[in-house]
Design brief:
Helix content: 10-25%
CATH topology of the largest domain: Adenovirus Type 2 Hexon, domain 4
Number of helices: 9
Structural class: alpha+beta
Radius of gyration: 24 Å
CATH architecture of the largest domain: Distorted Sandwich
Shape: globular
CATH class of the largest domain: Mainly Beta
CATH superfamily of the largest domain: Adenovirus Type 2 Hexon, domain 4
Length: about 400
């Protein structure tokens, strides 16, 4: 390597290389069809019918405008952390009439994923997503007109857009959004507030290659058969909810049974008081340690982590859980240097438990996978009314035919 670097210093007459493979990368706006009025529980569909396009799904985003009006101006009331994501109950991406990504409870899903994925250097950008809003920091809201605006990038919402960064060609796209039944998770205050959504748009870039690149793509597509098949591997984010831990010193939660093609790679666990949800007095993005002593994941007979953590948050014996949280970025994004959003003191008051199961035995890989979580506490029983969320990140594989736009899901 050293010899190569040294000889490169002598290549003074080499021609510079410029990337002219694209002639255009312009953003286009797509709007929902149907009524321009958006009410609670409405289903909104934003289609892209044109198939002769190359779309940059990874860098697309949902643009939102609305009005936030407290019912009593004399009382404290403000948009809460991650408020934009909590405006929706579900967000789906469909390609070729097949559902390829679905995010249920986007507010909690993105809260958990953001807390483990991003660091302080991202906070200024995250503000435009509605992340990091406090009573003193209402950057997306104009207090005079009560108008707010922001954007939700698809890569912030779903694994497909985060993992698959290439263009999608000759396939119909449709974004489906279901507005939340209640907006009480989107604000905190001493009084109620009215939230009106005035505008929802899907902004996406069209990729236009230069002629030689376009001809190369068309020649490959027009061959048909296997030559026209594009394969996409990505990680799906599935959120599961346990309404309440039992009043015992240990509990087992059978989350699901899944096929081997969708085996989990990471499980992110968060505990909350059930009263946090749909309650304007509480912060729904705040988690608790729930006096957890140990959490273990079972994939059939395999257990993760191999050794129990033996946590005691009261005595600050929590470094094992913090290391697992901190190590997520290193493992998931293959980073050498990590930048956790929380230091260990902040983690103690708002913990997430990360279980890395990305390395698995062949016995797990080749069979149906039974996913279970085991919880233990040092106390006589878990705190009352403790709700548990588990964000299961698992492999997903699809194929689509770039000639006719047909999508095949759940196939290897």
């Amino acid at each position: 390597m050293a010899a190569t670097n040294t000889s490169a210093k002598l290549e003074v007459f080499d021609e510079p290389l410029f990337d002219n493979s694209l002639v255009s990368l312009h953003e286009h706006t797509y709007k929902p069809y149907g009524s321009p009025y958006y009410r609670n529980s409405d289903e909104i569909r934003i289609p892209i019918q044109f198939q002769d396009l190359i779309l940059d799904i990874a860098e697309s985003y949902i643009y939102i405008e609305g009005k936030f009006t407290p019912t009593d101006a004399t009382k404290i009331c403000y948009l809460s952390n991650n408020s934009l994501a909590f405006l929706f109950d579900e967000i789906r991406l469909e390609m070729g009439a097949e559902q390829i990504a679905v995010v249920r409870n986007p507010g909690i899903t993105t809260t958990m994923k953001t807390m483990v994925s991003f660091g302080e250097s991202h906070l200024k950008t995250l503000l435009t997503y509605g992340w990091g809003l406090t009573q003193q920091k209402q950057n997306i809201l104009d207090n005079a007109s009560h108008v707010f605006s922001g954007r939700l990038p698809l890569k912030y919402l779903m694994g497909f857009a985060e993992d698959y960064t290439r263009g999608v060609i000759n396939a119909k796209q449709e974004l489906v959004l279901i507005i939340a039944r209640s907006f009480k998770n989107s604000y905190i205050g001493e009084a109620d507030a009215n939230i009106e959504i005035d505008k929802i748009e899907w902004k996406i870039r069209h990729i236009v290659p230069e002629d030689r690149q376009k001809l190369k793509l068309l020649n490959r597509i027009n061959k048909g058969g296997h030559s026209a098949i594009a394969k996409i591997v990505y990680r799906m984010w599935d959120l599961y909810e346990l309404p309440s831990l039992r009043k015992t010193s240990s509990d087992i939660w059978a989350i699901k049974i899944t096929k081997s093609l969708e085996r989990p790679r990471y499980i992110i666990v968060g505990c909350q008081n059930a009263d946090n949800s749909d309650n304007r007095s509480n912060d729904v993005t705040q988690f608790t340690n729930a006096d957890i002593n140990s959490i273990r994941l079972y994939l059939n007979s395999e257990v993760y982590p191999y050794e129990r953590w033996n946590l005691d948050f009261e005595k600050k014996l929590d470094s094992a859980a913090y290391y697992a949280y901190e190590n997520f970025q290193r493992s998931y994004y293959d980073k050498d240097m990590v930048e956790p959003m929380m230091d260990i003191t902040e983690f103690r008051s708002n913990p997430l438990f990360v279980i890395d199961c990305s390395h698995q035995q062949d016995a797990v890989k080749s069979s149906t996978v039974d996913i279970k979580l085991e919880f233990e506490t040092r106390k006589r029983h878990f705190p009352d009314n403790t709700r548990v969320y588990a964000l299961v990140i698992h492999d997903t594989f699809i194929k689509y035919n770039t000639l006719n736009g047909i999508v095949y899901t759940g196939v290897a």
